[in-house]
Amino acid sequence: MSDYLKKISLSNFFLILAIFLLDRISKIYVIDQSKKSLSNNLFLSDYLNISLMWNEGIAFGLFAFDESFFYNFITILIIMVIIIVFFMILKNKGYKKYSLILILGGALGNLYDRIFFGAVPDFIDFHIGDFHWFVFNVADIFISIGVIIMILSEFMVTKTSNEEL
Fold first, then answer.
1. CB atoms within 10 A of CB 78
2. For all residues of the chain together, what is the average pLDDT?
3. Which residue among 66, 122, 125, 130 is the active-site one?
């Protein structure tokens, strides 16, 4: 393997690690502050609340189950998706590769919590009046940005392909 390829692989690893650590640090901080204040509501404003809640479902609290079988099934499914994303990173380049790296970094952060805590701590709550968006965390931000970049890159590839015809 050439030095250039090693640098690319090492930089990709450090980007994934940075996303994972940023997510872990933010979650540890919020959990610690919640324990110190004895409240899950750490910051409240007109548009943003920092309120800790434990998500046993998947993205944005969807499909939360009380049954451990379903929780374990979803966790196994997430592990399989993470493995697929890893191999897709190896096969892709450009925007698609970096979008997958963002998704992988965020997914690993949330998987860590699912395995070690049995739930994912979500705490960012955007709202306008009584309308609240789904509560999310830093890992969810990177996953969402990765998905948006992937969708946009697919539109660019499709548009370029159509223009060449």
1. 16
2. 86
3. 122
From 23, 113, 125, 140, the catalytic residue: 140
Helices (H), the chain: 3-37, 68-91, 94-117, 138-164
113 is catalytic: no
Long-range contacts at 126-129 (CB < 8 A, ≥ 24 apart): 126/47, 126/48, 127/47, 127/48, 127/49, 128/47
Query: What are the backbone angles phi and psi of residue 88, rounded to the nearest 5°?
Result: -65, -35
Answer yes or no: is pLDDT of 159 > 80.
no
- Residue 144's closest CA among 13, 21, 23? 23
CA 118 to chain CA centroid, nearest Å = 16
Q: Which two tokens stand for residue 108?
A: 């690993």
User: pTM for the full model?
Assistant: 0.83
The confidence band for 7, taking pLDDT boundaries of 50, 70 and 90, is: low
**125 assigned to active site:** no
